[in-house]
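Need fresh eyes. Consider my entry:
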Amino acid sequence: MRGTNGRHVGQISKVARWFRPGEAAPIGQWVIADGMVYVGVSDVEKRASGQAAPDGCVIDPDLSVATSYADRDGSLMSYWPRYDEIDPRSRLAYLEWLSTGKSNPSINIGFVFLYFYGIERRVFIDGVENNIELDALTGEVQRLLQIYGSNNSFHGYAKNLLETINLLHDLVSKKRFEPKLNPEQKGISAATKVAIGRLLANGQAVPFDWMMSWWLEDSSTRLRVSGTRCFAEFTDLMRTRFGQHYPSGMRIEVPNSRLTLYYNGASSGISGDLSHVFHEAVPDIEKSSGPIDRVGEIAERAMDDLSAFARFVGRNPNQRKSLLAAKLLPIDCKPEWVQEKLVALAEVVGSDNEACRIIPLSDLARACGLECDKKLNRDGLEIVAMSLARLGVGIEPDPLYGSTSTSHDEKAHVFCASGKIRAEPNEAYSLAVAMTTLIGGIASVSDTGLGSAERHFLSWIEQRLGLNPVQRQRLEAHLDWLISKKTKFTHVRKLMRQLPGEERATFAALAVVIAKADGFIEQSEMKFLELLFDELGIERQHFYGVIHQMDDGATPSADEPVEIQRGWGQRGHTIPQPSDHEEASNGVTLNEDRIKQILEETHAVSDILITIFAEDDDPEEDEEFLDGLDLEHRALLQALSSRETWERADMERLAHACGLMPDGALDTINEWGWDAFGEPILENGAQILVYREAIEVHESAHTRGH
């Protein structure tokens, strides 16, 4: 490449000789072995006329040079040095530096600039003869950057020169530009401007890499800690989410302004417009801010979602690429290092896409690199669940839906799905889990186990609550897991103890409906219901009255309701006789109106049902960890711990469902946190912030202590 395609930024009389890279340049007693300097006479006439002349770099061998007291610190030089104007002692320091390899890191930066001026002149004024020389000059500037790049001024000019050299070379050779995702780039690079401008001029959408490059380089962009500390993961997440919004790239309206490129040289006289190298009209993307704003919105959410991972990495840098850290990554963030760690787990799970499989939990844990000799705690179970989710596989038990620690020899129920495997349980799903737990409890005590009637009831729940396919798969796996564990009455009792009185009555009614779903109630189911009603404080005679009314021979007429209990709460709880149109196709009778009423009546506590049903293999351990909090405050803390932030209205609804006053409950939990851990657990404001990591750290520490 010669100059800028044969046209110069400036014009001077060539009165000095250029020594090419590797060509020795003798100057009196000094020899500059690797060349890359101008030696001769400066253009005095041009300077006398007041014109800017880029010849300050020329070394005039006839000018005097001191023999001692070299001005190595540059105290005798001006800010814009010229060889023909600097003090002889400065010339001595400069020639010493040039002849000894141009590498002394302590030399004044002014001497480095004086040498740099010559490279600029060669590239933009006289012109480089071939690509071999251009590569040598590029390498020399890169070498200087490594030694003197800590000087901000030199760093800026050197980077600008390298970028411009590459741009001009690529433009002339018709080379395709490649995006560079550099979080440290300040200002939109010329290559980015040209590449994206060409895409717009050709009516093409802008792909992710170029949009990301543009956004990173824009002066308004500010990366937060989660973006800088975890840049690789941030980029991976951005790529995924950008593709979701713009699968074919972002379409951008073409700006009217045409791009101009201006090189601002370090040397006087080497500055000017380089736009003449274009053979096309390239739009100026800096005139369009909308695309940057759209990418910024995606980036802000991505940085929010990476904040927990970034905090963990900051505290545990040696565990950055562990599955313990990976569980904090958003599920749609799939960096290469995570995929590598999932190979062993994928082999255990296999490629069989059948509806549900049973795999020893210990096998899954070991494939994740976890030790589980006796028990897998919540952190370990979360690692397994998150790792499986990245493979498109769900698991029951899953801590996101209530399960805590579990036995190492337990059987896990896994299923494959194409949708979002793990999502915060919504109200409908939480309610479905509550009902499924009752089904599991009753089926576990039944002599006949889980029959078609209970399965039909579960299907009816899924349909009426509008569960999506993944939720249905998970619910069915959850029920199978409950049955395999032989759900105990204590598991259901935990629910009843947490519910307000009115809601207890509602679920008692539901339990009777489930037990009667197959047309009769077994002796074992009767005992289960007796225990359930005893737990509620309901006299046995009332319970037996309900059962007798539901017997075939004692069922009241269709318009005569069956009373479960008079005076429970503020509204009755009745189970009317099913009408003809409610007869199910498989012969199972379901009272849809009554169950619909039950669904509506349990609305107030649906957000905490998952916490209520959390499997507690060692309740004494949990009670010891939460020592100091009563049952109601424990339930509220467990419910709030399922998220990092809560809208105040939602928190207040949870508190009321637990029978607590919101502000007082928050104060009580924080006082407990100060006493137990030396730090608060909740931050009270327009939004309630939950310091989940503090809870998990102390819970894990307690578990290890056992």
User: Anything to note?
Assistant: Residues 1-14, 552-591, 598-623 have pLDDT under 50 and may be disordered. The longest strand covers residues 411-416. Residues 621 and 703 are 8 Å apart (CA to CA). DSSP finds 30 helices and 14 strands in the chain.
